Amino acid sequence: MERWEQFQGVYVHTPFCLQKCLYCDFPSYAGFPEEVRQRYVDALCREIEVRSLQRELPVAENATMYFGGGTPTVLTVEQIGKIVSTLKHCGWWNDPAEATVEANPGTVNAGKLKALREIGFDRTSLGVQSLQNKELLALGRVHTAEQALYAIEEAKQAGFRRINADLMSGIPCQTVESFRDTMDKILQMNLSHISAYSLILEEGTPLERMVRGGKVQLPDEEVSYNMYAMTTDVLAKAGLQRYEISNYAVPGEESLHNIVYWHYEPYAAFGVGACSFTGTERRTNTADVLRYIQGSAKLSLSALKTDSGQWQTEHLDRKTQISEAMIMGLRMTDGVNLQKIQQRFGIDILESYGKEIQTLLDRKMAECEGRTLRLTSYGMRYGNRAFEAFI
């Protein structure tokens, strides 16, 4: 059985946060009381149990696990433990090749991190974003730079050898010098993985409205580019190689779960707003917490066969699948193995997209070596323009 015929990853969503960040458009919410959180955990476990009765695809041996959000560590250790136990009992969690839990530095301590390690998580991803308190405040983060560094140390002491830190550039109040200071400080922590993203102003978020209204100013294009260029150079010199547009790792420490996404392989997802992908269709759960809780209480095997409003199903035609596979694969520095694309979809990309690919080659945005197509560093800088060739 091929990898694209099995679930290679499992994602679990926690929609709760202590405070909603100003730039965030994910299905996450602040203000829900503990009683609702417990009902959510019960509903989540119910979804896991019922969907195990009629799996769309088999679960691959060693399929990766990822608890994201929101902020999973807003939940208690007991609540997270119940979810993990349900996943194990229902056959979704089976000696995962990697088990990651996201954490906000303001929601963890040594005891909680140690308990998460004992539950079975072997990797944690910390939403650091910046190590400048003024910048963190501008983003609406609930932690300080000092708390972020302390959380990294606590994660190490708890037994997490694999730790990722998220960093963000192009944010309010940020300068090239302050971003370099943040990178220097994070590199002193000797992490094996760093995700470095440029801020994207999502429509409808508080930060987007503030920028549009002139209340907040972002770094100009030249400053943002200097931050972008600096990131790859500084991290490479520190031994963290770029393996995806926004991700850097010590060789062998890449995020196995995220690679499932970039290789366009199937994954199961549970919880509010969670999106499952079988290779031929996507199913996205409602983003309404209370609706999800009420719907999961009524969930049954027969209900899985209908679209009751609890989720939406999108069927993907072959052209869309090929387009998405190319776009996701080209995010990685290794590029796309065109032979595997032909094996999976029965199409020769060089023939079907010959004109578009030649344009990318002529513009030095891509290079083709044997049966591998990859973006150049210039192509990665303008990735969205390169991806348009396959839309």
UniProtKB/TrEMBL annotation:
Superkingdom, natural source: Bacteria
Gene3D superfamilies noted in UniProt: Aldolase class I (3.20.20.70)
Keywords linked to the UniProt accession: 4Fe-4S, Chaperone, Cytoplasm, Heme, Iron, Iron-sulfur, Metal-binding, S-adenosyl-L-methionine
Assigned GO CC terms: cytoplasm
Coiled-coil residues: none
Name of a matching Pfam family: HemN_C
GO biological process: porphyrin-containing compound biosynthetic process
Single GO term (MF): metal ion binding
Segments forming domain Radical SAM core: 2-241
Entry's localization field: Cytoplasm
Entry-linked InterPro entries: Aldolase_TIM (IPR013785), Coproporphyrinogen-III_oxidase (IPR034505), Elp3/MiaA/NifB-like_rSAM (IPR006638), HemN_C (IPR010723), HemW-like (IPR004559), rSAM (IPR007197), rSAM_sf (IPR058240)
Role of this protein: Probably acts as a heme chaperone, transferring heme to an unknown acceptor. Binds one molecule of heme per monomer, possibly covalently. Binds 1 [4Fe-4S] cluster. The cluster is coordinated with 3 cysteines and an exchangeable S-adenosyl-L-methionine.
PANTHER family according to UniProt: COPROPORPHYRINIGEN III OXIDASE (PTHR13932), RADICAL S-ADENOSYL METHIONINE DOMAIN-CONTAINING PROTEIN 1, MITOCHONDRIAL (PTHR13932:SF5)
Sequence similarity: Belongs to the anaerobic coproporphyrinogen-III oxidase family. HemW subfamily.
Record protein name field: Heme chaperone HemW
Species name: Succiniclasticum ruminis DSM 9236
